[in-house]
Design brief:
40% of the residues lie in helices and 20% in strands. It is of the alpha/beta class and 158 residues long.
């Protein structure tokens, strides 16, 4: 699929110490940046969160304290990430509700104001949920392999 980009688009994903945007930290960041001319660059970086990674978080992403003890702290890579994301629109899965706010918090902790002004934010989860409806009609079709209109007709004539 060819994207008609007007500016760079960066898909990003975070692995974290938990799901609290205000207090949890990044343990891994992955970025795939596409230029309008089709060129791309990707970067995945483990990060020492400087706090313990709880077992329930490690169970999700498989990253443990031992895995990141020698990794750079976010403060050491933050400027490189800002440069990589410069002038990019941003995309990810559930990124508008979780990844982006958590990343902004990480930047603020190290004194960087990462602005999302004049950027498009594309949350693929929102697109997925619009394309894959979550309602009675969709559930009936999925589980019964019938259209709900057929169910209504069957009930009417019983």
């Amino acid at each position: 699929m060819k994207l008609n980009l007007q500016r760079p688009l960066a898909f990003f994903d975070l692995e974290t110490t938990g799901i609290n945007v205000a207090k949890d930290r990044i343990v891994e960041i992955s970025i795939f940046k596409m230029q309008p001319d089709g060129q791309s660059v990707s970067k995945t970086q483990r990060v020492n969160p400087t706090i313990h990674i709880p077992a329930d978080a490690s169970a999700v992403h498989g990253i443990f304290d031992e895995d990141v003890k020698d990794a750079p702290k976010f403060s050491e890579i933050a400027k490189d990430i800002v440069i990589l994301l410069e002038d990019c629109d941003l995309a990810g899965y559930n990124s508008n509700r979780f990844d982006l706010p958590l990343m902004i918090e990480e930047f603020l902790r190290v004194g960087i104001n990462f602005s999302i002004e004049n950027r498009r934010m594309i949350d693929v989860q929102k697109i997925f949920h619009k394309m894959e409806r979550r309602n009675l009609e969709a559930a009936y079709k999925f589980y019964c392999q019938k259209e709900i209109l057929l169910l209504q007709a069957e009930l009417k004539y019983k």
